[in-house]
# Entry
Amino acid sequence: MHIDVVELSRLQFAMTAMYHFLFVPLTLGLSILVAIMETVYVMTNRPIWRQMTKFWGSLFGINFVLGVATGITMEFQFGMNWSYYSHYVGDIFGAPLAIEGLMAFFLEATFVGLFFFGWDRMSKVAHMVVTWLVALGSNLSALWILIANGWMQNPVGAQFNPDTMRMEMTSFFDVLFNEVAQAKFVHTVSAGYVTASVFVMGVAAWYILKGRHIELARRSITVASAFGLAASLSVVVLGDESGYSASHTQKMKLASLEAMWDTEEAPAKFTLIGIPDREARETHYAVEIPWVMGLIGTRSLTQEIPGINDLVLQAQDKIRSGLIAYDALMTIRTERANTPPEVRAAFEEHSADLGFAFLLKRYVDDPRSATDAQIAMAADDTVPGVGPLFWAFRIMVGLGFSFIAVMIYFAVTANLRGMRFPRWALRLAVIIIPFPWIAAELGWFVAEFGRQPWTVDGVLPTVLSASRLSVADLLITLAGFVTLYTILFIIEMGLMIKYIRKGPIEDVEETEIWMARHEDRLKNNGGLAEPAE
# Structure
């Protein structure tokens, strides 16, 4: 298999996945925010909260539809572009995807219709329940997708069957409660909550700057800043949990993120910034903080963290162990039921390292004929792109901490200063709208690029996972996807901008009457504060 086919397949899937993930965070977060707003409406019976629910719900609906359209394409790609991957691990990977479709997606899709068309046909409480079920469905969809992805990062609850030449599930419980999957789920949904909070705050801030829909905008900022503060704090805390998980499930990824070339004695230091040099195997101009990496990676000050150089040497040992398993596997395929017991015993003893032997397929058809130099090259392939990972991670973390600062400011201003937002802060809220998406995309880049050269970590190399397509096939479909997704992106942006400019158009008269009465009550109780300039 020519490597260009694999690289083009990776490029195509990366493009579709990262484009799809433009919609996912906003869907996750807006579903919860809309449910919170409707809950306040049910509790207070104030029309403005119903108006807020309908307005932000309409933006959720636009985003949801296009997110579904782009997500379906990705599932077809597993069969089209990654057929050997689907054959090899489909029994495990397919289970959570099927559950997501049958349980979470249908739940979400069914109740989305009731949300939009059930306002005048259901009681307030019943409609609120529907809205929360939409939010539950959205988040359950993310759960099952991330369980599938988490298994690719940490393939537990499964083993390779030499008779069928496929991975088979041994424990659904282990797959479900995979520590990587659980950490990824809570981290990802929290990032979605931050994205939606920043989006709501930015749009609301734009309304205040334009002098439109002031009361709706103020309340939206109040809800979004409080929810966003909790979510942004969660992102940092749960991101730390992902780092701790990587220290014993994906050691090479962790070492690459930190550009940690040599094993760090306890307590390991954290490299704040620097210039990683893969050729020289060192980080130039490194600014280091003592002890921090030890606390993040091991939760202690007494455990060392292995570096890239030592992990490469360990990979060489695993490749040689995997060659024993590979040799036994070839005998099993030939002899079948007549395979000597000692051959099966040898396979069972070394089967955990079989995937490392497959890394040699990039250099030689029969791994058993590999030279020491080829083994060394295959082991070196286990090091992902250190420079891009190093900086992507730091930009993502820096943005995460900046969101905490922004949310604290707006939450304090909304609750302690009577929602008197200075114009510079409102402009800032508008400017930062795209930044949570940048952080989210960088997070997925770190997770997926950091797993290379594996499709399933330690089990199946990416170079073996792709379908036997031609370069022309991939170029044509890649061009088609780029064209289609560009059109969808233009449609998405056009619809979102159109409805944001139009603003809330439902329940306007009832809301205005209620607000006039509310303002009279406030004036009679001490005056009404005017917005800050």
User: Anything to note?
Assistant: The chain is about 70% helix and 5% strand. The first helix runs from residue 3 to 20.
